Amino acid sequence: MWTLYSVRILPALYLVFISFLFQAQAIDLHVASQGNDAWSGKLAETGKYRKDGPFATLERARQEIRLIKKRGLPKEGVRVWIAGGRYELEKTFELAKEDSGTPGAGIVYQAAEGQRVILTGGKNVSGFESVTDAGVLQRLLPEARGKVLQVDLKAKGLTDFGPVVKGGMEVFFKDKAMTLARWPNEGFVKIVDVTGDQPVDVRGTKGNKSGKLIYAGERPSRWSGESHGWLHGYWFWDWSDSRQAIESIDVKNHQITLKSPQHSYGYRKGQWYYALNLLAELDSPGEWYADREQGILYFWPPEELGKAGDGVVVSVLPSLLSMKDVENVSFRGIEFEMSRGTAIKVSGGKHVQVIGCEIRNTGDYGVVVKGGEKHRILGCDLYALGNGGISIQGGERKALKPAGHEASNNHIYDFGRWVRMYSPGVWVSGVGNRVAHNHIHDAPHQAIAFSGNDHVIELNQIHDVCLESNDAGAIYAGRDWTMCGTVVRHNYLHDITGFENRGSVGVYLDDLFGSTKIEGNVFYRVTRAAFIGGGRNVTISNNIFVDCDKALHIDARGLGWASASVPTTMKKRLDAMPVNSELWKKRYPHLPGLWQDEAAAPKGNVVAKNLFKGKNWDDINKTSRPYVKMENNLDKLDFRFVDAAKQDFRLQKDSPAWKIGFKEIPIQKIGLQEDGNRALLNKK
Question: What are the extents of the domains in the chain?
Answer without folding.
Answer: 84-121+323-459+668-684, 123-181+282-313, 189-281, 477-665
